[in-house]
Every structure is written in structure tokens, then in C-alpha cells.
């Protein structure tokens, strides 16, 4: 018998609609997508074209989905893709993408096409949640796994760019709430026991095990470690249950898991993981680490093709 570790549902039994509704009823808006994301986007017209690529109708809430295209877009050039806020609660993913667009976009004009999607999951951003209102994780819903509206909208945006994306950086965080809230909720939703994995203390990357690109990944680590500390492996040489294959690096089969990092088909792909709850890191450092990761990734891709 599975011990109760979450207030919703019956231990060992996957959630039905009643449990999902109970979970949804507990969620409260804690911040504003319009103020934190849409308003800053409106101030970036000097170097960016703002494109609405869909909308989410989560009555009574309505969210326009917005992407930034470099205003010097040239179809002869490859594309650099930056995605943030696939997990809306991961704050520096959103604000790091916005900061990159505001501070660094002009440095790449004439060199590569930039496409930045700063907040893939606006409802989750406002409610500081990992899932969407249907209790579905957008970052397990890409490709054939498409069950989240957020993921479907992003895949439609990127469909015309297949074969043209050179580098894709997906901005994430690993937080203490992963272990205290989100992983227990996932286990309860799926009717499984909760097995703690621990939280790495510092920045790390998740590469694609089918296309690992270790030199690319280490170039990003080298840039970020000037901003914030890199997470060490645990005593078993692991992070969150996966082997550490190089300093600050683990690999996942991103496509088979339905992760955002698997949708672009880019040669160079990585998922960043910032640790905002560390006593050795500030919110500003987390945002700066995301920006440093994006710049290092694009610089490496431009240098190596």
C-alpha cells in the first residue's frame, strides 16, 4: 500500500477529473503575465517584431501567446531559438529570455535570425505552477505527446522552421518546490509512490542523449560559471537521478520524453537549469546566468556552424 504523501486523491490510484478539478480549485493567481511579460515586450520594438502566435482561453482568463522575431529576419540565415516559461513557475526562464531580448538581441543582427518565446505557459506563470489548468505538464507534451495547448501552439509556430534552427536554448529552473510540491503532485496524479531525488545546488545543463554535443555544452558551462556556481554531482555521481557526464551536465532523450528541447531539430540543443533557492545565488544572478547561457550557445553555434 502506498503511503499518503499528497492531499489530493487516493494513494496508488491515478487522478480522474474530480481530482484534477480539486487541484485546479486550489490554484491562485500570484503575479501578472500582462505586467511582467506583455508590457516589457511592447517596449522592444526597436530590434524586434512582436508576433502573436496563438491564444489560450482558460475561462475566465485569456492569454495571448507572443513571440519575438529579430526585425532583420533573412530567410537565407539559420535560426537561433530561445524558449522560456515552458514551466511557468520557473521565473528566471521568463525574465532571462526577456533580458536577453532587451540587452543582447542587437549584437546578433545580420548574423543569425533570432526567435524568442519568453513565456510558453502564461497561466502557469501567473499561478506559479508547473502544469497547465488541466494538470498537464507542457514539458512532457511536445511531439507525439502533444496534450497541452501551450505545447501545441508552440509546435505550430515552429513547424515552418523545421530544418532551419541551428541552436535552441530552453530556459528552466530546478527549485526546492520541485521536491516539496511538484514531484509529489506528479506521483499522486499518476498513482505512483513518491521517490525523492534531491535538488542540485547550482546551475546545470540537460543535453540530448541522442545528440549530446559535449563541447557545445561545456562552452555554456564555462560562460555561466563566471556568473554563478555550477552544481556538483552527488556522492553517486548523479544529479536528479541521472549520471553526470561532464561538469554540470546530464543528458536526457529529449524527443522521446516529449521535452521542449526536442522540437526544433537543431544541431545544438540544451536545457538550462538554474537553482534560484541557493543561498549563493540572487534573482539577478539567475537572470544573468540564463542570458550568459543563451549568448554562449549562439556564439558557439555561429563559430562552429
From TrEMBL:
InterPro entries recorded: Peptidase_M14
Q: Peptidase M14 domain spans which residues?
A: 29-305
Q: Which residues cross the membrane?
A: none
Q: Which family does it belong to?
A: Belongs to the peptidase M14 family.
The molecule here is called Peptidase
User: To which species is this protein native?
Assistant: Pseudoxanthomonas daejeonensis
Amino acid at each position: 500500500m502506498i503511503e499518503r504523501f499528497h492531499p489530493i486523491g487516493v494513494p496508488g490510484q491515478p487522478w480522474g477529473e474530480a481530482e484534477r478539478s480539486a487541484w485546479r480549485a486550489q490554484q491562485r493567481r500570484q503575479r501578472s503575465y500582462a505586467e511582467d511579460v506583455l508590457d516589457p515586450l511592447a517596449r522592444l520594438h526597436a530590434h524586434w517584431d512582436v508576433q502573436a502566435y496563438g491564444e489560450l482561453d482558460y475561462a475566465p482568463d485569456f492569454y495571448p501567446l507572443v513571440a519575438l522575431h529579430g526585425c532583420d529576419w533573412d530567410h537565407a540565415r539559420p535560426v537561433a531559438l530561445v524558449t522560456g516559461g515552458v514551466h511557468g513557475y520557473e521565473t528566471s526562464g521568463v525574465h532571462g529570455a526577456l533580458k536577453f531580448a532587451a540587452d543582447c538581441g542587437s549584437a546578433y543582427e545580420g548574423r543569425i535570425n533570432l526567435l524568442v518565446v519568453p513565456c510558453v505557459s502564461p497561466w502557469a506563470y501567473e499561478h506559479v505552477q508547473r502544469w497547465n489548468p488541466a494538470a498537464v505538464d507542457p514539458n512532457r507534451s511536445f511531439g507525439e505527446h502533444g496534450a497541452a495547448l501551450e505545447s501545441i501552439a508552440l509546435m505550430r509556430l515552429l513547424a515552418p522552421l523545421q530544418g532551419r534552427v541551428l541552436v535552441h536554448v530552453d530556459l528552466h529552473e530546478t527549485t526546492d518546490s520541485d521536491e516539496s510540491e511538484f514531484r509529489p503532485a506528479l506521483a499522486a496524479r499518476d498513482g505512483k509512490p513518491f521517490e525523492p531525488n534531491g535538488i542540485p545546488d547550482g546551475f546545470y545543463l540537460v543535453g540530448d542523449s541522442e545528440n549530446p554535443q559535449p563541447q557545445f555544452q561545456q562552452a555554456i558551462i564555462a560562460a555561466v560559471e563566471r556568473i554563478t556556481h555550477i552544481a556538483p554531482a552527488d556522492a553517486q555521481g548523479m544529479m536528479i537521478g541521472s549520471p553526470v557526464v561532464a561538469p554540470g551536465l546530464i543528458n536526457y532523450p529529449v524527443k522521446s520524453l516529449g521535452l521542449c528541447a526536442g522540437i526544433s531539430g537543431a544541431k545544438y540543443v540544451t536545457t538550462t537549469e538554474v537553482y534560484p533557492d541557493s543561498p549563493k545565488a540572487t534573482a539577478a544572478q539567475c537572470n544573468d546566468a540564463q542570458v550568459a547561457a543563451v549568448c554562449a550557445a549562439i556564439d558557439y553555434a555561429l563559430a562552429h556552424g
